[in-house]
Amino acid sequence: MRLRLGRQGHPPWVGPSAIERLLVPLDGSREAASALEPALRIARTLQVPMELLTVYDQVNGRWCQNIDDIAADLPYEHLGVSVVGSGWAGDVIVNTVAEEPGTVVCMSTHNRDRFSRLVAGSVTEHVLHRVSEPVLMVGPCYRPDETGVLFERAVVCQDGGPRDAVSLVVAENWAHQLKLELELVHACLPPTARSEASLSAAAKRLEERGLAARDVVVDGEDPAQSLIELFEQRPGAMAVLTSRARVGLPKFVLGSVSSKVLEYSPIPLLIIRAP
């Protein structure tokens, strides 16, 4: 496992580790609870612990008061509940992940305001900005899978840049653990012959390492919309995206392809903070 020095206050990026625990932050809202379903699907596949976390908001008096009832209603044995009586939720989540490597946060974004204004300066931003492990995000348009089918595929979004290698390493790691098919998608239009060849070569290398993999080129003038339309056809999938840690999260989530995808995606997004 290689460590890379962090920049501008970021923790170092750590090569992918095994998924040891799922952490789902709850605040009593329906939006936050929407992250339970995808987290449960992963936990059941791997038979790893799943922890529900709520932090009492002393300013607004907001927290998940019925967290014990929620845990009791979930069809899973390896469940834990943590109620933290003070502190800011962003810091509590980051510290909890740091204390136990292999913890994957599954959380949602809220839709109480314009999406871009909400994410910037929020708990979501802080967690994505500070946690070195991948974070599974559920956006406002996420559609729960009511069939209970486990994840079957990961759609790995590539743009031909240096961060592609990071997303491929993490996607391969998750594919081995969850038995996922990998679908590599060029997400920066228009594609070039070089980018298509690179994508095809990456899929071939993954196949040689024992994974089911294929490459796909999406058409259309709007990369984000093309990805969203592809996700509409992949109900049993998750998507893999890489953030731009070195320029700061607001620039990543505001006015970008990733921002629109996160806002309108019907499937969960595994977001990786690249070095």
Automatic annotation (TrEMBL):
- The UspA domain extends over 82-138, 153-273
User: Which InterPro entries does UniProt cross-reference here?
Assistant: Rossmann-like_a/b/a_fold, Universal_stress_UspA, UspA
Coiled-coil residues: none
Pfam families for the chain: Usp (PF00582)
Q: Which family does it belong to?
A: Belongs to the universal stress protein A family.
Q: What is this protein called?
A: Nucleotide-binding universal stress UspA family protein
Show the taxonomic lineage: Bacteria, Bacillati, Actinomycetota, Actinomycetes, Streptosporangiales
